């Protein structure tokens, strides 16, 4: 998520947090300024020297059970659940799971991970043969603190919150294991039709602009995700429309997304150099899962996953210190086919994991290291502004998970 080689002079870096613009979004659209029954943290890192503290609280005089899923950049998932009591705040380390009164219930994300976290309220089955399922509990809210003990860098951002629409507290929201994000009564809030961000240009010429982005990263979480054991990947394309300060529009920037994505904006369409330097930046497309990032090579990237990252660069195409962009999820069609591939261990043939492309909305997080021309002066974190509700229904935005039947684990285990 961030280059660990950057050394900050301040004890704690500047934090700016851009909350969703509720006024510009429909009432039934998820945002980061409300409470909900489902919370999503789209950017979590435990890269070397970093950890992420997750904070979650229950603003109700009754308790419930929380179910959570980690998902990393390789679309591997880990799940855990824990009880939360009346009016209880909970915190834990993403790396270890330690912290708070429920730490013995929480599985950590592990070392050297980037990805996301989803947590939602569930009800346990009352008897043998029952099935746990998601319930309405619009009293949950949370945030994440990303920090580096090595550099003193830290920032906090709020979780995206999805309310259960017109469902009584504690009652089931749809069928167990299927969480519809459509914004209609009986379902959860819809995802936004698109996300809007302001940004500083990447790089500068040494004299202008006075402030610029040393690095800007975007994390995108598609609003259709299959977390089940026999899950299929969600493959879509993030389309970026960009405007500079002179209202000049730049098009043609995109990045192919498989289940979850994080990358540096101006690296779209390039072979990332971060991983060659051992900085653990998530490499783009077709990367074998190797423990040592320095072992990756350009041959591991037969097809680039994006294009036109120079539209985010001051000396590339933007030519102004600041810009804005809109990101929309559309079908990748042919341009994203063949980007994410694996070798079938039985036949030895190449398998395209994203042969089938769909159009789905995103939630996101943008992070930026700001440079004053001579040094890093701060870190910006922005969840983005929202616009309208996603209305396309093929597929309907949803989160699918394995609702477990039978005897449940003891609370606190």
Give an overview in words.
The chain is mostly beta strands. It folds into 2 domains: 27-183, no CATH class; 193-395, no CATH class. The protein contains 1 helix and 26 strands. The protein has one helix at residues 314-318, and strands spanning 15-18, 38-45, 50-58, 64-72, 77-84, 89-93, 114-123, 133-134, 140-148, 154-158, 160-162, 178-180, 192-200, 212-222, 224-226, 235-244, 249-258, 261-264, 306-307, 322-330, 341-343, 350-352, 362-371, 376-382, 385-389, 398-400. Strands 2, 4, 5, 7, 8 and 11 form a 6-stranded antiparallel β-sheet that branches. Strands 19-17-16-20-13-25 form a 6-stranded antiparallel β-sheet. Mean pLDDT is 82; it is low at 2-25 and 272-296.
What secondary-structure arrangement, pairings included, does this model have?
Elements: E1 15-18, E2 38-45, E3 50-58, E4 64-72, E5 77-84, E6 89-93, E7 114-123, E8 133-134, E9 140-148, E10 154-158, E11 160-162, E12 178-180, E13 192-200, E14 212-222, E15 224-226, E16 235-244, E17 249-258, E18 261-264, E19 306-307, H1 314-318, E20 322-330, E21 341-343, E22 350-352, E23 362-371, E24 376-382, E25 385-389, E26 398-400
Parallel strand pairs: 1-24, 15-26
Antiparallel strand pairs: 2-7, 2-11, 3-6, 3-9, 4-5, 4-7, 7-8, 9-10, 12-26, 13-20, 13-25, 14-18, 14-23, 16-17, 16-20, 17-19, 21-22, 23-24
């Amino acid at each position: 998520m961030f280059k660990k080689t950057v050394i900050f002079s301040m004890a704690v870096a500047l934090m700016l947090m851009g909350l969703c613009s509720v006024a510009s979004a429909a009432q039934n659209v998820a945002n980061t300024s409300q409470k909900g029954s489902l919370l999503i943290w789209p950017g979590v890192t435990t890269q070397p020297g970093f950890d992420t503290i997750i904070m979650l609280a229950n603003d109700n005089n009754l308790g419930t059970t929380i179910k959570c899923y980690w998902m990393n950049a390789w679309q591997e998932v880990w799940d855990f659940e824990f009880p939360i009591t009346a009016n209880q705040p909970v915190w834990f380390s993403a790396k270890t799971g330690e912290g708070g009164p429920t730490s013995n219930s929480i599985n950590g994300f592990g070392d050297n991970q980037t990805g996301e976290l989803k947590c939602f309220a569930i009800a346990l089955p009352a008897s043998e043969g029952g099935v746990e399922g998601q319930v309405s509990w619009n009293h949950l809210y949370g945030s994440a603190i990303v920090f580096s003990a090595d550099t003193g860098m830290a920032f906090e951002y709020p979780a995206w919150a999805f309310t259960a629409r017109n469902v009584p507290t504690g009652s089931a929201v749809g069928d167990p294991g299927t969480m519809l994000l459509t914004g209609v009564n009986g379902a959860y809030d819809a995802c936004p039709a698109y996300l809007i961000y302001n940004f500083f240009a990447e790089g500068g010429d040494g004299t202008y602009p006075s402030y610029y982005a040393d690095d800007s990263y975007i994390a995108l979480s598609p609003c259709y995700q299959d977390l089940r054991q026999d899950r299929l990947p969600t493959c879509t394309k993030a389309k970026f429309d960009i405007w500079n300060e002179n209202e000049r529009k730049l098009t043609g920037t995109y990045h192919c997304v498989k289940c979850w994505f994080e990358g540096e904006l101006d690296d779209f369409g390039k072979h990332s150099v971060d991983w060659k330097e051992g900085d653990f930046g998530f490499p783009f497309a077709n990367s074998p899962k190797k423990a040592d990032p320095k072992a990756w090579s350009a041959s591991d990237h037969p097809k680039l996953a994006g294009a036109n990252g120079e539209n985010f660069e001051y000396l590339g195409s933007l030519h102004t210190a600041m810009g804005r962009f809109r990101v929309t999820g559309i079908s990748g069609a042919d341009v994203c086919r063949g980007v994410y591939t694996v070798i079938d261990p039985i036949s030895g043939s190449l398998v395209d994991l994203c042969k089938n492309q769909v159009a789905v909305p995103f939630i996101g997080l943008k992070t930026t290291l700001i440079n004053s021309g001579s040094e890093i002066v701060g870190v910006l974190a922005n969840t983005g502004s929202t616009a309208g509700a996603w209305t396309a229904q093929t597929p309907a935005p949803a989160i699918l998970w394995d609702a477990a039947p039978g005897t449940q684990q003891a609370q606190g285990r």
